[in-house]
Structures are given as structure tokens and as C-alpha cells.
Amino acid sequence: MTSISAKGLAVLRSALMHCAAVALIAVPVGAAACSPASVRDLYGYEAQTQIILDVEAAMARAQAQHGVIPAEAAQDITVHARAELVAEADFDAEYGTVNHRMVALLNVWRRSLSPMGDQYVHYGATTVDIYGTATILQVDRSLGALDDCLAESLAVMAQLAAEHAQTPMIGRTLGQHAQPITFGKKVSAWVGEYARHRERLANLRSRLRRSAILKGAVGNYSGLGDAAIAVEQSFAAELGLDAPYAADWNGTRDVLAEYGLVLGLIARSHQRIGQELFLLQGTDIGEVREALPAGVVGSSSMPHKRNPIAPESLVHAGRTIPRLAEVLGDDVVNLFERDNTSRMTPVIEEISVDSVAAARTLNRLLGGLEVDRARMLENISKTRGFAMSQRIAFALADHMPREEAEALVKQVIAGAYANDTDFAAALAAEPRVLQHLDPPTIAILLNPHSIELPAIDQIGRVIAEADAKEYAP
């Protein structure tokens, strides 16, 4: 009687004692402050007004730089570009008269400007450019906040994956028990996924940051003078954005549609993780538990229940955020040069706030997740060792043709089912198996803790790759 190859047995025994040493992903400064309130504030009256005034002031400075308006006018406009000078009550009253947001804002703001500033404010500009650029700034800052949230997600996931690199659980395919994996392996797949999400955000931001726009009423610089292109480039620089696209995008809005699509994809990832953790903490599986604050009521009528809260919220976000993304996608289909019938601002606000809120929910869920190692082992044992059948087949294939090894293992399993016995006993009762595998080798092969080294090393590699990437746009 021979045993498993010395090399194979050494690998398995080594894996039992192996500890995955992984460098965890650090949380960037600001990521821990992942807060939907900070994004919601961007779209509030005061912050939005300040952004619009900043855009107007940047335009004035750019125009002055190229001799389009006097420097004195640009200085006055910049000094008075303060939201407090356009009180909401005054704006509302003026809007009630003129029924035009930009005109109402300018009429109120002009009361604080000098005659020189009043003469040159909004000089040659069109409302669409001002609000379009303001939207780009809001979305860019929203993306920055969301990226901070995803950086925190990666750090929390890396911690969880490293901690459970050797925590066996059953892998499931098509709703059935397949082979053992580790919980760390499952989470490491999320690490890779969310690293790609951060790459998508960076890639998107690189396009977004080229989307400052100052091209006039029909997008061809009409009315902006011979220095219009140079002014636009300086205008973008004044706002801290990159050199703008030469093409007019106000009639296409594909970058804003892409923003929605990327957020929708991220929400789908939240949904899948939330749904899986919803199922894994179900009574019949019970492998994880959501940490709930003291005082949270599980059920109004059944005191024994511990209902999931965060997973349900993530599933909801995965259904609603992609719907908002569809509305932004619809805005790509416009009329002629500059359609202005879509009113995208409320949709952009909602999808931005909801996306950060969902990311925060995910981080809190994962950060407090309770993993039941004993229950995971108990669930692996439900198939009485059959989940390790591939290991036995591979070990036997060292001594016989693979097809013959697989057929033998299937016969042993069929006999075990017929005799209502476990896999180890069935193997020990089969002379054709014992001819090649001794009982200690069989015990190692059927031990769910005998995790092969590549499976453990995979987790460290995933975390290291995510940590090494550059995500800035």
C-alpha cells in the first residue's frame, strides 16, 4: 500500500500550519468620514450657490487674464463671490418675479458688486455653461467622497479577508455544496472587485475633469471673442480642473451618463454582497451575523428573530440606483445642440447621495460582521465529507488513469449513500482505495482545514495588488 505523493502530503501538512502574512490596505485620510450628509450638502442652496459664484469668478479672472474684461472688474467679482451675498430668501423673491434661476441669482448678486463688476459679471456667458460647469464640480467632489468610501471598503474587506484566510466554509455553486473554500477567499473576491471599482472611478474622473465648459449659447464660442478658447482653458485651470475638451458636450452629456452607469454598477456589487450576507445569516445557514446596535428590534411580533437590516438596505440600493442611472442615460438623447428640458440636477443629487449612503452601509456591515467558524464547519460536514471528493480523486489519479479514479470515487459515494455512511468510512471499506491511500492520508485529504497553499497565498496576492494600485485620476 502506498500513500499520497510525498510532495503532495507535505504541501497539505504545511498548509495546516501556514499563516498568511498579508499587508493590509491602509484607509486614506478622510475615508473614515464616509458620509452622505457631506455629499447632500453639495447640492444644498448655500453650497450650490457658492459653486456657481466660484464658476462666475473663475470665468472673470480668465477673461481678465486674456484682456477680455478689466482686471478691476475681475477682482471685484472675485471678492464678492460669496453665497452670503445671495440670501436664499432674496433669491426666492427674485425668482418668483423673473422665473429664471441664473437671472434671479445675478440680479440679487449685482446689488453687492461695484459698477465695474456689475458691468462685466457673466460677460458673454450662457447659463448652460455656468450650470454645466457647476454640475461637473459637484459630481467631481461627489466622486471624491465616494472614492474615499470605497477606499474604506477595501481596507475593511482586506482586514476581514486576512483574518479569515484559513477559516473553512463550504463553497456553493448552483445552490449546492461544492468544495470547501475559506471565508477569506470569498471576501478577497470582493477586494478585487472594489479595487476595479476604484479604477473605474479614477478613469471616469479623468474624463469628468476635462468637462469644464465655456463655449457659448450653441457651443461654438460665438459671442466670446477671439480669445475664447484660451479663456476657456484658463477658466478650467482657475477651477482646478484639467484642460477642457475641444468638443461641445452639452448636447451629449455622455460623461454624466457614464457617471450614473458606474454608480449603478457599484450599487449592483453592494446588492450582491448584501444579498449573500442576507442568505448566509439566515436561520438555515447561520454562518455570519450582522452586528446590530443595542435596542434594535428584530421583529414586532416574534422576539426571537434577528432580522437583517443593512443587507436589506443594500439590496434596495442595488435596485434603485441603477434606475436613476437609466434616467441619466436617457439624457444622452437630446435635441439638436443644447436641449435644456431634462432637469438632471435632482437626479444627480439623488444618485450621488444614495451611492455614498450605500457605501457607508456596506462598510458598517462588514466592519461589524460576526463570523461563526463553528457553524461553517458544521455546514461543511452536512455532506459527510463528500465535498472533498475531488481531493480523493486527484490523489488516486497519481496511481491510476484519471477517468478510472473519478469512476471509483463515484462508486464509493454511491455506496456510502446506499449504506447511509460517511465518506471516510466508505473509503476505508474500499480495498481499491486502500491499495493506494492509507488512512492518515485519507484523513488529511478529508480535513477541511487542510487548505492548499496557493489558496491561502491568493488572498495575500489579491490584497497586495489592490494596495499597490494607483487610483488617482
Helix-strand layout with pairing:
Elements: H1 6-17, H2 36-42, H3 45-65, H4 71-79, H5 88-98, H6 101-109, H7 115-120, H8 127-163, E1 168-173, E2 176-182, H9 183-208, H10 228-238, H11 254-280, E3 288-289, H12 310-330, H13 345-367, E4 370-371, H14 373-380, H15 389-396, H16 402-419, H17 423-428, H18 431-434, H19 439-445, H20 453-468
Antiparallel strand pairs: 1-2, 3-4
Helix pairs in contact: 2-13, 3-4, 3-8, 3-10, 5-6, 8-9, 8-13, 8-20, 9-11, 9-20, 11-12, 11-13, 12-13, 15-16
List keywords for this structure.
single chain, 473 residues, Ribonucleotide Reductase Protein R1, domain 1, Fumarase C, Chain A, domain 2, two-stranded antiparallel sheet, 20 helices, 4 strands, 61% helix, elongated
- Count of beta strands: 4
Assess the beta-strand content as a share of residues.
under 5%
Strand order of the largest sheet: 1-2
The top level CATH class name of the largest domain = Mainly Alpha
Secondary structure category: mainly alpha
Percent helix, as a range, is: 55-70%
Unreliable spans are: 1-23
- Main β-sheet description: 2 strands, antiparallel
Domain count: the total is 2
End-to-end distance: 62 Å
User: How large is the count of helical segments?
Assistant: 20
Any overview of this molecule?
This protein is mainly alpha-helical and 473 residues long. 61% of the residues lie in helices and 4% in strands. The chain folds into two domains: 6-26 and 380-451, Fumarase/aspartase (C-terminal domain) (Ribonucleotide Reductase Protein R1, domain 1, Orthogonal Bundle); 44-170 and 182-296 and 305-376, Fumarase/aspartase (Central domain) (Fumarase C, Chain A, domain 2, Up-down Bundle). Strands 1-2 form a two-stranded antiparallel sheet. Strands 3-4 form a two-stranded antiparallel sheet. Strand 1 (168-173) and strand 2 (176-182) form a beta hairpin. It is elongated.
